[in-house]
Design goal:
The structure is a homodimer of 147-residue chains.
Chain A (H helix, E strand, L loop, with lengths): L1 H14 L6 H12 L6 H7 L9 H13 L3 E4 L7 E4 L4 E6 L5 E5 L4 H11 L2 E12 L1 H10 L1
Parallel strand pairs in A: 3-5
Antiparallel strand pairs in A: 1-2, 3-4
Helix pairs in contact in A: 1-2, 2-4, 3-4
Chain B binds a DNA duplex (30 and 30 nucleotides) through helix 4.
InterPro entries (chains A, B): FUR, Fur_C, WH-like_DNA-bd_sf, WH_DNA-bd_sf
Pfam families (chains A, B): FUR
Family (chains A, B): Belongs to the Fur family.
DNA sequence: TATACTTATTGTAACAATTACAAACTAAGA
DNA sequence: TCTTAGTTTGTAATTGTTACAATAAGTATA
């Protein structure tokens, strides 16, 4: 699982002309295999032994590169530092009120809602669902025509 | 509208033994009447003329007080500083998988999801729904007992 | 392989948001 | 009014993040 993701991610990078350096490889790998949502500092510390001379700046630089390539999502919870999450295929549904069409859309980072809900209600959270309703482009266009 | 919210908020504070100082009054009022989601600095600047000697620390202190009293929500978007939002009555449901109990919980700030979804899919968004599932404290306790 | 060119990494300094702290002050009840 | 605990203020300290310049390392070409 990790390997597939990693390979895909490296391909994505390569295809956008980003060099694959050992540091980048390691940072990506760490984020992918990490089940939590590591902070930049978590990543830095985790790779310290492997890359004793790596700079914090490198971690930040590359997190930005990954973010811009759409590989990684930056999550900001209440606490002081950002967390980073490899973007996988979790997705929600966008539903057309008029024709019922369903479109997937991806949006990571609602973990915070689960967190807050758990905190506020004392529940042990297992999952959540979300749907967004509206009018699809086609129906929108027809509506204006008829009118 | 603003007045009702403000009065309620002040009552809430009073009932939890928090003193109503002119600064607190002004900060609360500003957040409530503000349609945007001001940062601490926005608030500080907005009240500068009214309270020339107010410290930034006071703004932060009181935002924490309000947050802890459940009056205000701290929103962290990507940008560097937190934004603060008066909590009104939008709410979601937390549902117990075991006994079906439903608990309301409040969580403003999912407008961004609607925004993003609209942007990604071209839909005209009208609404969204979200539910969170898990185990309520009572059921959690019973589960451990049985075991 | 050698060379040149471009991009990445490092280390450090700078920055900006937030918090800690101690001293001065003040709201609110007796 | 008096008292006292809670608040405000100003400033220093902290922390996450970024900017920058020098050094290093990939990559393409011959």
């Amino acid at each position: 699982m990790t390997e597939v993701h990693l390979r895909d991610a490296l391909d994505t990078l390569k295809s956008t002309g980003v060099r694959i350096t050992p540091q980048r490889h390691a940072i990506l790998e760490f984020i992918i295999q990490s089940m939590s949502h590591p902070t930049a500092d978590d990543i830095y510390k985790a790779l310290e032994s492997k890359f004793p001379s790596m700079s914090v700046a490198t971690v930040y630089n590359n997190l930005r590169v990954f973010r811009e390539a759409g590989l990684v999502k930056e999550l900001t919870f209440g606490d002081s530092s950002s967390r980073f999450d490899f973007i996988t295929n979790d997705h929600y549904h966008m539903i057309c009120n008029s024709c019922g069409k369903i479109v997937d859309f991806h949006y990571p980072g609602l973990d915070e809602v689960e967190h807050l809900a758990s905190h506020l209600t004392g529940f042990e959270v297992s999952s959540h669902r979300m749907e967004i309703y509206g009018t699809c482009p086609t129906c929108k266009e027809q509506a204006t025509k008829v009118q």
